[in-house]
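Check this:
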Amino acid sequence: METVSLFGHRRIDNIRACEGDLVSVLEECFQKGGDFRFLIGRNGEFDELAASVIKRMGRKFGEERCELCLVIPYKVADLEYYEKYYDSIILPEDLFGLHPKFAITARNRWMIERSDLVIVYTQRSSGGAYTAKQYAEKIGKSVRALPIQGDG
């Protein structure tokens, strides 16, 4: 099973373009064959969009080939809601006791270190998604950057 992590900024300027780019990349993955475990957060528009696209890809290519895992950086109050949507929820032990300010970055590194492929959507050269992309490249992970889209 191939593990894929996805990262993107909280806000997306052009959701339709981003969705199209993500669909194209995921279709390529599924068409090559194999099963996929997708690691994702839930910290903004990109994460919500990616989860929705992954669910759709699962219906199209076979739900048995697609596991959608929410990786949370700290305990959350409404976990029951997430349990209904995601196939599994992971709170890495490595993150216990971290201040919430640092937990998201640590969670992102945890996800990247366990991934075969990292898909990123960045619109600027700052922020958590950009930092995740830099870290993935630094440690030699396969990184697929979605094209930067303008307002159009």
